[in-house]
Amino acid sequence: MMRSMYSAVSGLKTHQTRMDVIGNNIANVNTVAYKSQSMTFTEVFYQTTQTASGPNAETGKGGTNAMQIGLGSSVGSISTAVSTEGAAERTDNPYDLKISGDAFFIVSNAGNTYFTRAGNFKVDESGALVTSGGANVMGWQVDENGKTVKDVVSKLYINSPEFTYTSPERTSAVNFTGNINAGSKDTITTTLEFYDSVGNSYQATVNIKYAGVQGDNTQYTMEPVSVSKNGNPTDLTFTVSGPLSFNTLTGLADQSNAEIKLTFSNDATLSQTKENVDLRTIGESETSPVLTLDASGITMFADKTSIKGDRGIGTDKAGAGKAVGKMTSVGIDNSGYIVASYSNGDTRNIGQIAVTTFSNPEGLEKVGDNLYSATLNSGTFDGIGEDISTTDGSISSGVLEMSNVDLSSEFTNMITTQRGYQANSRIITVSDTLLEELINLKR
Fold first, then answer.
1. Which domains are assigned to the chain?
2. Helical (H) or strand (E) element with 23
3. Separation of alpha carbons 172 and 314, rounded Å
4. Predicted confidence pLDDT, tens digits, the chain (443 residues)
5. Which residues pair with 337 in a beta bridge?
6. CA nearest 357: which of 19, 100, 146, 34?
7. Range 276-311 burial, b when 16+ CB lie within 10 A, else e
8. In this structure, what are the phi and psi dihedrals at residue 439, rounded to the nearest 5 degrees?
9. Alpha-carbon distances, residue 220 vs 57, 202, 245, 255 (angstroms)
10. Which of 210, 218, 352, 403 lies 20 to 30 angstroms, CA to CA, from 35?
């Protein structure tokens, strides 16, 4: 039989394979972080009918080239454009992540470690961060101070009991700001709010009353009214260590206004009640529950009276304390830190997404579900991974990487592949015609 027919058959097979690759690319044109593939052809074994010979000086005969007849084509390679980054697609979902650069997310599925560029993650019933196929996203845990412990990667959790709350802090200092009208002798009623060590909210109400002028100073007394806890009345009482004093000529507060003490107490007969036990959580000790009041920010100008109580002293609000914090939201920053926000204003790192890079990313093997596995030709994964900030990229939240399939190239390749297939089929047809002519010789 004719060699050309078998060469054409091999050509049909390889062109069909190339069309399979093109079809898969087009099918995945909208697959998250899909990396397009391309195929190259290679020639196959040649039948040599005459070997090459060199010039012969004795006979004067020149050299001749080899005569070889090719036996068709085969698949040379099917490569994946792993390093070609796809465009960004905005989703505004905080768990949709896009890596810029050459790094890969690390995931674990049924005990096997895989790698992916597809960051369309979700949170499962246990609170774990997982891929759309259920593989766990891997990274590093944090210590009690929110510092990353860069050890062997493990599952990352968005919601878990240990991250639900942050601890409250006792208020140790409060302050008054505002103005007392210099010409008014009306009683001013205002409230100070503070927290105890377990997060209960207290409101201490005081009356500020005009007490007269002594020399160059105008004084106001602060008379305790009541103390409520979480909006409910209590039996707690308190005393104030001194008056408010102002320079009559300047209207500015005396320095002593910065060191007023509020001392809380309860009736001695109630020493075993819960309210008295609560005093330990309010102040510095069971016998001396004290708050420091800084009223040096109050002025006594000829303007309307407006007094405001607040927690903490100074621009840094030292001693402000805080309520217990309940997790309200979770986000992921550019370094892969999973950051939780809480109702009391706290933010806390609860984990960090780890990534990894490979010396030859094109050597990774696709295993489906947008996952890759390491091979002998890709390089190995050390089990720990890398911080994205140490690579050439970053992580973007609310964004996904799109497929890097170029439809214009795929359609062009489809046309050339179709024509190649068509041409090879013509070889078979013509070879058949030649055989038919040969058979007709005997007629």
1. 3-83+404-442 (no CATH), 88-165+328-401 (no CATH), 173-311 (2.60.98)
2. helix 3-27
3. 13
4. 578 888 889 999 999 999 999 999 999 999 999 999 999 999 887 788 888 888 888 888 888 888 888 888 999 999 999 999 999 999 999 999 999 999 999 999 989 999 999 999 999 999 999 999 999 999 999 998 889 999 999 999 998 888 999 999 999 999 999 999 998 889 999 999 999 888 899 999 999 999 999 888 999 999 999 999 999 998 888 999 989 999 999 999 999 999 999 988 875 433 344 444 455 566 554 445 788 999 999 999 999 999 999 999 988 889 999 999 999 999 999 999 999 999 999 999 999 999 999 999 999 999 999 999 999 999 999 999 999 999 989 999 999 999 999 999 999 999 999 999 999 999 989 988 888 888 888 76
5. 352
6. 100
7. bebbebbbeeeeebbbbbbbbbbebeeeeeebebeb
8. -65, -35
9. 127, 24, 7, 14
10. 352
Task: Enter the tokens of residue 355.
Answer: 């990534």
